[in-house]
Amino acid sequence: QSALTQPASVSGSPGHSITISCTGTNNDIGGYNYVSWYQQHPGKAPKLMIYDVNNRPSGVSNRFSGSKSGNTASLTISGLQAEDEADYYCSSFTSSDTAVFGGGTKLTVL
Amino acid sequence: EAQLLESGGGLVQPGGSLRLSCAASGLTFSPYPFTWVRQAPGKGLEWVSAISGSDTTTFYADSVKGRFTISRDNTKDTLFLHMNNLRADDTAVYYCARRISTWLVSGACDVWGQGTMVTVSS
Predict the structure, then answer these.
(1) Å from B65 to nearest chain A CA?
(2) Which of B45, B62, B107 sits opposite A46 (nearest CB)?
(3) Which residues of chain A make contact with B104, given a CB cutoff of 8 A?
(4) Residue A86: what pLDDT?
(5) Residues of chain B above pLDDT 70, percent
(6) What distance, in Å, lies between the first and last C-alpha atoms of chain A?
(7) For residue range A66-108, what is the model confidence (pLDDT) as tens digits?
């Protein structure tokens, strides 16, 4: 199972919005509405931010939203804040009943 | 407070074996599937394996299939990862994580441990 494709880095200014894309295939993102997004700060465990394409776990800010079109999923962060600076990973369920992650995107808040 | 605590990591020679444990506390264990995810130094996340809540269904990444075995003890709220024939590219921090819901074994996880480091080197 090949990793999902994410941009290596994105950046944005405080208060602005950014979108991170995650591209897969019909065997993962395109075939199921089971895309999730994780935030990871350096030296910390990943934190679930979005699951099942566009659902937020309890306690996650509504500044985080997810969507999907075809084989590409997206994470949008609005009203950027300094603490949003982190690595972000997408993940999808696959046709093999396994899961696959993207390569990760480093978000820099300017 | 919901907590997962991994243990069992360490330095092992190529070809060696190791058993990781993940002890759960403050959360409901047995109905939920669990997952192991690893992260090599400076690299991204890699999904490794998952197990159903009843321990009857398991899944593995191709990179570990035949070498790793996931299991759980629902009487002790503990998850395991038995790793055999270890290679240098298995060097990583290994995280255990609980599925956010009780269905779809290999799905999103909302509770994560802090990880345990496994180093495979001679």
Answers:
(1) 12
(2) B45
(3) 34, 93
(4) 98
(5) 100
(6) 35
(7) 999 999 999 999 999 999 999 999 999 999 999 999 999 999 9
Dump pLDDT digits (tens) for B60-84: 999 999 999 999 999 999 999 999 9
Q: What is the mean pLDDT of residues A41-56?
A: 97
Reduced to 3 states (helix: H, G, I; strand: E, B; else coil), residue B49 is strand
A99 touches chain B (CB under 8 A): yes
> In the prediction, which pLDDT does A1 show?
73
CB contact under 8 A, A98 and B59: yes
Chain CA centroid to CA B80, Å? 6
DSSP A104: -
Tell me the C-alpha distance between A60 and A48, whole Å: 8
* DSSP H or E run through A48: strand A47-50
CB-based contact B107 A96, cutoff 8 Å? no
Residue A50 in this model has a pLDDT that exceeds 80: yes
Residue B121 burial (10 A CB sphere; 0-12, 13-18, 19+): exposed
Is A19 within 8 Å of chain B by CB?
Answer: no
Cβ contact B44–A34 (<8 Å): no
Q: Is A56 exposed, middle or buried (0-12, 13-18, 19+ CB in 10 A)?
A: middle
Q: What are phi and psi of A95, to 5 degrees?
A: -70, -10
Residue B84 confidence (pLDDT) = 98
SS3 (DSSP) at A31: helix
